[in-house]
Design brief:
The protein is mainly alpha-helical. It has a three-stranded antiparallel β-sheet. A hairpin with a 5-residue loop joins β2 and β3. α5 runs antiparallel to α6. It starts with a helix and ends with a helix.
Length: 152
């Protein structure tokens, strides 16, 4: 298991200790890095890449000697989650970010695996290769928003 996966799993375990959707975990970056045998910048990387608002998390941080990072998982009903995701798509989105959004819907049980695979296929890079690069992400965003609208 890669160190980034280990860090993410450790944080997820902390979030799940509360046993409900709206849970939070407060960590001290240096202490967590020491516990897991990594450097603090690896903790930052995992938090900024895997605990984003698009993935249903709010991250607060406080610097200094008593500093901490607080990660809160937001619980939402299906309609609210879809509206939140549509807002986060914006006017353009790349294939990787689209896949992350769909993975979040799958993880939260809002769509099933076959549906997730279809949406990921529709927003992957390959179908847009014939378009000029500057148009690909805008078209992908429009298609993804349309799919999300039909789900809501």
């Amino acid at each position: 298991m890669r160190i980034s996966d280990l860090i993410a799993q450790y944080i997820m375990d902390m979030l799940e200790e509360n046993g409900h959707d709206d849970s939070s975990a407060t960590i001290k970056r240096n202490e967590l890095a020491e516990t897991l045998g990594c450097v603090p910048s690896q903790i930052n990387y995992v938090i900024t890449s895997r605990f984003t608002p698009e993935q249903g998390y709010i991250v607060e941080s406080r610097r200094g000697g008593g500093g901490y990072i607080k990660i809160t998982r937001i619980s939402m009903d299906k309609h609210s989650a879809i509206m939140h995701l549509m807002e986060s798509v914006g006017d353009s989105i790349d294939a990787g970010a689209a896949a992350s959004l769909i993975q979040e819907l799958l993880t939260r049980g809002m769509i099933d695996l076959p549906t997730a695979k279809l949406i990921i296929a529709a927003t992957a890079e390959r179908p847009y290769q014939a378009l000029p690069a500057e148009q690909r992400d805008a078209l992908r965003a429009a298609i993804l928003k349309n799919i999300l609208l039909t789900m809501g």
